[in-house]
Amino acid sequence: MIRRIITHVILALFAIFALFPIYFILITSISKIPLAALSASSLIPNMKSITLSSYRLILTNPQFPTWVKNSLIFGGVSAIVGVGMAAFTGYALSRFNFPGRRTLIYFIIAISQFPGIVLILPYYLMFAKLNLIDTYLGLLIPYSAGSIVFSGILVKNYIDSIPQELEEAAMVDGYTRTGAFFRVVLPLSKPILALGLLLAFVGPYTDYALANAFITSPGLYTLALGLYKVSQTVGAGGINYAVFSAFSFIMGAPIMILYIVFQKYIISGLTLGGVKG
Amino acid sequence: MVSRGDFLASVRLDNISKMFGEVRALDNVNLYVEDGEFLVLLGPSGCGKTTTLRIIAGLELQTSGHVYIGNRLVDDLEPKDRNVAMVFQSYALYPHLTIYDNIAFGLKARHEPKQEIDRKVRDVARMLEITHLLMRKPAALSGGQRQRVALARAIVRNPDVFLLDEPLSNLDAKLRASTRIELKNLHLRLKSTMIFVTHDQVEAMTLADKIAVFNAGKLLQHDTPMNIFMKPANKFVAGFVGYPPMNMIDGEIAEKDGHAVFLSSGLSIRLQSAPAGKCTLGIRPQDIRVSLNPSDDAIACTVKGLERTGTDNFLYMSSDVGDIVASVETGDYTIGQKVYAKFDISSLHFFDPSTGKALPLQGVYA
Fold first, then answer.
1. CB contact under 8 A, A169 and B92
2. According to the model, what pLDDT value does residue A58 have?
3. Which parts of chain A fold into alpha helices (H)?
4. Model pLDDT, residue A276
5. Closest CA to B128 of B149, B143, B146
6. Cβ contact B80:A174 at 8 Å
7. Which residues does chain B have with pLDDT short of 70?
């Protein structure tokens, strides 16, 4: 009983730490006084000072639809391309015993842990040579490559838990190895593919550093770049925290909804052993 | 519904060897399975029986040798092109598909017309009494039901050869016995060639037309169940088949009073002509008579223990020639009791102790 109470207290503390920033952003975004939002008194919103003007400002910005479109293109295309290729990568790493397989797996894990920010300079030099700076392709390639790397390992671990006999049964039943992959392995990997797609979408969707380095044309601006631009220009001589917070909330809400909608898949994707033969 | 064409679905293995790295899993196996035969591959785990099955299926490629199904050399054919069906030990039902789709899977792979698929699936479901399960997923089925679905999935394809990898081992004892009978009836009805892997000698004896006994990658004997039991080709087969295992007594053959005799610590058995040398005598527990009174040729023993199975009593004894187990009628023995064991001279087996091969020797009543 006491153990349970202690567990719940600890979990509650963690929950407070996790939820407080979201709460803070929410109340700041509806506050009238943009620069004073950081004072402690404003933690409890004053009903009289509530306003949706920051939201109105963002949503009526003529560039806003362009930013949304671009974020969806970068996030969506790189998630589909990256996870699509990761499905094959993960299958090969799980099922084929080729020379250097273990080394390759460790190598992929190692580079997936590499901080992305240090890659910006080499990427920039490389893509400048290829004339891909300030283009869709120039960002889609590094975004997709990143998701192949981490989703590839996720998928590999998941496929490891799918009994090989299921594929063998499909092969005896009349399919080639490729047929068995598409009819048996891929449908059974849905949870991990859903998780991979979500994570691969969120990366480019929230990226600021790489997009900021590569993109100069306003027509290619993403939400993250738009967020910075709007909160910079509106405030007088500093960041407008109310607008910044409102924009953060607009950007974050769809991700939260996606997580809630795909919760079932994500949990079974994370617990790996979800498929039983 | 499940009719067989004129195609003769015999299976022939020619000098099949299989290496897994440095390990020789199969050593020059030659085996011919007749069309319509129920062959059981029997042996302890790791003996190569499952590898043999997987090589026939095409899931494993032999290191050397050839596989023929019918008159067709299938070495270079993918599993899907060999027209065999396999039932896996785990059943390997596709968890994301309904039972209907599990059974229809192989027919869809072969692009059969939809109506034809539906008719075949329903026919086989009726035959195996699983019609009420068709719309469920495998996870909602019991072990016995899954086993039937796995069988249905194989039967519906009307394959040339059925390959069954320990399909009964995950069932409880009672269900295993009834499924065994059903499987045998199914074979009588389909008249298909079936190759069945097991380590359970009861399954082998009750199901098989022929048994192939494997050990350490070698095919030791391929014969009818009765011959495997009555005329084991070597010491391993003699010891592996039958319960309790055959008694083995080491000794030697010498000449005594002008006759060949088998001698071992006081035991002396007259033989028809035999060359002198070391020899192992084998006798099944069922071929030993135990009595409380001494008699000629009977071995003096001390009771060590009694095993009752309900239908049989097995008496464990020690003697000068080693430990002996005998099948006895009653269980009225006490530990430490003196008893006398007499061998049925006509049921003796003799083996070469170095090669294990059966020797063509016969005991003679003195």
1. yes
2. 87
3. 2-29, 53-59, 64-95, 101-112, 120-129, 136-160, 164-173, 177-180, 186-188, 190-206, 209-214, 223-234, 241-261, 263-270
4. 35
5. B149
6. yes
7. 1-7, 366
- Both A10 and A92 in one domain: the answer is no
Most B-contacting residue of A95, A172, A185 (CB-CB within 10 A), to test interface: A172
With 0-12 / 13-18 / 19 or more C-beta atoms within 10 angstroms meaning exposed / middle / buried, residue A28 is buried
* A-contacting residues in B 183-242 (Cβ below 8 Å): none
Number of structural domains (chain A) is: 2
pLDDT digits (tens, 9 = 90+) for A110-136: 888 888 788 889 999 999 999 999 999
Q: At B357, list the tokens.
A: 């091969």
What's domain B247-359's architecture? Beta Barrel (2.40)
pTM score, whole prediction: 0.84
DSSP B110-169: TT--HHHHHHHHHHHHHHTT-GGGTTS-GGGS-HHHHHHHHHHHHHTT--SEEEEESTTT
- B268 forms beta bridges with B263
Name the class of domain B11-240. Answer: alpha beta
Q: Where are the domains of chain B?
A: 11-240, 247-359
- Nearest chain A residue to B90 by CA distance is A277
Q: Say if strands B84-87 and B161-165 run parallel, antiparallel, or are unpaired.
A: parallel
CA–CA gap between residue B87 and residue B81 (Å, rounded): 17
Residue that the structure tokens 């929410």 belong to: A26
Residue A121 and residue A246 in one domain: yes
Q: Is residue A176 part of a domain?
A: yes
For chain B, positions 14-33, list CB contacts with chain A under 8 A.
none
> Which residues does B241 contact at the CB level (< 8 Å), separation at least 6?
B42, B201, B204, B205, B211, B213, B228, B229, B232
How much is the pLDDT for B4? 46
Token couple for B247: 């008694």
Q: Which two tokens stand for residue B259?
A: 């006759």
Instruction: Give dist(CA A200, CA A81) in Å, integer.
Output: 10
CATH of residue A232: 1.10.3720.10
The pLDDT of residue A95 is 94
Rounded Cα distance, B53 and B58, in Å? 9
Predicted pLDDT at B33: 96
Q: Verify that A14 and A120 share a domain, yes or no.
A: no
Q: B198 - beta bridge partners?
A: B42
A112 and A13 within one domain = no
Q: A265 and A148 in one domain?
A: yes
> Which chain B residue has the Cα nearest residue A188?
B96
Domain with A35, as residue range(s), is 1-51
